[in-house]
Amino acid sequence: MITYLIIYGVATVLSLIATVLSIRLAPRIGAMDLPGMRKIHTVPTPRIGGLAILFSVITSVLFAMVINRVIRESFFRDFVQIGGLLCAAMFVLGVGLVDDIRGIRVRKKLVAEFAAAAALCAIGVRIESLAVPGLFQIDFGWTSWPITIFWIVGITNAINLIDGLDGLAAGISAITCAVVAVIALQAHHTTVAILMLTVLGGLTGFLFFNFNPAKVFLGDCGSLFLGFLLAGASVLSSTKTATAVGLALPVLAMGIPVFDVLFSIVRRTLERRSLFAPDCRHIHHRLMEMGLRQKHIVLVLYGVTAVSAALGTFMMVTRDVGTLAVFLCVLLLLGLFLRIVGVFRFKGIPEAVRHMVKLSNERNKVKGIFEEAQLQLREVRSARSWWRVIAETAERMGAVRLSIIHCDDGARQTLFSNPGSFQSDAAEAIHLTIPLPGRLVGSGLRAEIDVCTDGGLESLGKRLSLFGRLIDESIESLDRLEHGSQPWLPEDAQMLNIHAA
Question: How far apart are CA 125 and CA 142, in angstroms?
Answer without folding.
Answer: 13
